[in-house]
Design goal:
Strands 3-2-1-4-5-7-6 form a 7-stranded mixed beta sheet, with helices on both faces. Helix 4 (about 80-95) links the parallel strand 2 (about 75-80) and strand 3. The chain is globular, with a radius of gyration of 18 Å. The protein has a domain at about 5-20 and about 50-195 and about 240-245: Rossmann fold (3-Layer(aba) Sandwich). It has 10 helices and 7 strands. The longest helix has 15 residues, at about 5-20. The chain is an alpha/beta fold and about 250 residues long. About 40% of the residues lie in helices and about 20% in strands. Helix 5 (about 130-140) runs parallel beside helix 7.
Length: about 250
């Protein structure tokens, strides 16, 4: 497995992150994206039956555990972090889930052309060189295969200021997606759908505890979707759900 300098830095960052006992402080904000995760898993639930699935940048296997309930033909997970893969294997063994995990480079994987029906991931593309990873996903997808990803945006100026003052919370090569990245996806793939999340739900995250049970969260989420119909407000979103097909 050949690794670039950036790949090595990412591997070291995530090996270190997964070796820590405590989570990151930033984890408290992710409840603002609860509806993004709902839509992500709802789409996979409808799409995965009898399909060959790749969990791209699988981490410690949490997402694969949920997707394993959707009757896929097979699920494979890859990650550059040996610590993450070790944890993922232990996790599915304990849960008695049939998912195969291996250490691999997402930018230059070991799979043959046209291997998978669906490639999905959560918060992985922005750790990679966008052109390399999207070309690689295109290569390993079957014709009319589908990619499904949740990714952070790099267009909200206030979030970018927070990122600037908290560099240790993320790897040095992270680059939340911007307009040119989304344009590249549209050029490379067909039937591209992008949905935006995390404006008011993030601003007012202190006003609700569990988003699943919160009427306040649901109201804020609906207001977000109304605002995101206007292009101006899309720049203030925190995250997006990307669904696209190989041409």
């Amino acid at each position: 497995m050949q690794l670039s300098k950036e790949n090595i830095r990412e591997k070291e960052f995530h090996n270190n992150l997964q070796s820590q006992k405590k989570g990151r402080f930033e984890d408290i904000f992710y409840k603002a994206l609860f509806n993004a995760n709902e839509d992500f898993f709802e789409h996979l639930k409808k799409s995965c039956q009898d399909k060959l699935i790749l969990d791209y940048g699988c981490g410690i296997g949490n997402t694969a555990e949920k997707v394993s309930k959707y009757n896929a033909k097979s699920i494979t997970g890859i990650d550059i972090s040996e610590v993450s893969i070790s944890k993922a294997k232990a996790f599915v063994q304990e849960k008695k889930i049939n998912v195969q995990f291996k250490v691999d480079n997402c930018e230059e994987s070991s799979f043959e052309n046209g291997t998978f029906d669906i490639v999905y991931g959560a918060g992985i593309l922005h750790h990679l060189k966008i052109d390399k990873c999207l070309n690689e996903i295109h290569r390993i997808l079957k014709k009319e295969g589908e990619l499904v990803f949740i990714e952070p945006l790099g267009t909200n100026p206030l979030i970018n200021i927070y990122r600037k003052f908290t560099p240790s919370s993320r790897s040095p090569d992270e680059h939340p997606l911007i307009k040119s990245d989304l344009n590249f996806i549209r050029e490379k793939y067909d039937d591209v759908r992008i949905k935006y999340y995390g404006f008011l739900t993030l601003i007012f995250f202190l006003f609700y505890k569990s988003p699943e049970k919160s009427k306040i969260f649901r109201i804020l989420a609906k207001l977000d979707q109304f605002l995101f119909k206007l292009n101006f407000f899309k720049f203030f979103a925190w995250s997006i759900l990307i669904i696209a097909k190989k041409n």
